[in-house]
Amino acid sequence: MEIYLVGGAVRDLLLGRTVTDRDYLVDHADHASFLGRYPTARLVGKSFPVVILDGSEYAWPRGGSLERDLELRDLTVNAMALDEKGLLRAHPQALHDLQAKILRPCSPTSLTDDPVRVFRAARFAAQFPDFSPSPELLDQMRSAAQQGLLAGHAAERVGREVSKALCAPVPSRFFTLLAKADCLLPWFEELAACVGVPAGPPAYHDKDVFDHACEVMDRLAGDALLAWMALAHDLGKATTPREEWPAHHGHDRTGVAPARELALRLRQPRVFMEAGMAASAEHMLAGRYAELRPGTKVDLLVRLEAKKLTARMFRLAAADKRQADEDTLRQARRDLRVILKVRLPDDKKDLGEASGEMLRQLRCDALAAIQGVSKPCPIIHT
Q: One fold for both 1-100 and 101-182?
């Protein structure tokens, strides 16, 4: 029995990166022999059985041998195996591509063997921003799209690659590589609709909506939820009639539905779906927070705090305007502390809508007082 450390763990070891997940390959032994040696292991999977032992996966060579298994993997830089004595076995181009920082398919059929690898390759582009896609990779991605091979897969598999890309150092590379290879459809139709749509008047924007969203994502890299909010915040601009370009009046409202649809299609967690919808609906208000009346500020802060999005929304608004605006965030946090301290008198509680309206009025008055606003806020029935 020979056991090899394989895939990304070997790649990361050779790159001097921290290894987080370890996958193993078992050669010259069947499942029964392995389970006999390691009785705490569990055999899972049907079409491609693997064994789980101490939190790691142990699989058997595809194609019947280690060499064939390496040929059948996705990218050359992932097609390496390290045995228990430290001997490295690798795809013929693996070490060259690792040194040259190239993302290259292992074989001419790497992506058609499993078309979800198109999204996996794009995710690696985001995780390794100094690596370049090879012409072969772009050709195979484009061919998979043209053959209609990207549709019909389990949404969870595609969504998992998206989730990992959102955590990457340069999350936009996931989407820009897909766009370059004509692979945004059918999974990212809301983003595909943004390509070629001017983000706004030339005085404020020099990119289309797609490139602008990618740019904002990268300014917020390091926070997956914020990256998703950046991706979703301007989706409404793709719904603007062409004759109204480059203006996009009301895109904050019209973007809520596309943000929801994108999250649902990709099976993103509910918190991501709600954050994307809120990013579209609220980023314009957050971007001009200093100009808002006390009542509008109260309503905005209450909505954001209910979703635990206050800090993120103001960071998104600042990144959207190419600013590092910590002053506005500090002001919003101060205002939030003020309104959350407001309490209803005991005799005004438990009166249904009347209690809610009174609480809002008292919060408006408290905010108006610290801002020097002379007129009290009107009561708004909501």
A: no
d(CA 79, CA 91): 6
What per-residue confidence (pLDDT) applies to 204? Answer: 81
Quote the CA–CA distance of 125 and 105 in Å, as a whole number: 13
User: Is a pLDDT exceeding 90 seen at residue 372?
Assistant: no
Which of the listed CATH numbers 3.40.140.20, 1.10.600.10, 1.10.110.30, 3.50.50.60 matches domain 101-182? 1.10.110.30
Rounded to an integer, the average pLDDT of 189-208 is 93
**Distance, CA of 66 to CA of 63 (rounded, Å):** 8
Phi, psi dihedral angles at 128 (to 5 degrees): -125, 75
Rounded to an integer, what distance in angstroms lies between the CA atom of residue 216 and that of residue 214?
5
Hey, CA dihedral for 210, 214, 220, 225, is it positive or negative? Answer: positive
Has residue 382 got a pLDDT over 50?
A: no
| Domain extents in the chain | 1-100, 101-182, 190-292+308-327
pLDDT confidence of residue 376: 52
Q: What is the pLDDT of residue 381?
A: 45
Greatest Cα pair distance in the chain: 83
Amino acid 378: pLDDT: 56
Query: Would you say the C-alpha torsion 237, 265, 260, 304 has a positive or negative sign?
Result: negative
Question: 1-100 belongs to which CATH class?
Answer: alpha beta
* Contact status, residue 155 vs residue 267, Cβ threshold 8 Å: yes
Check whether 379 has a pLDDT greater than 60.
no
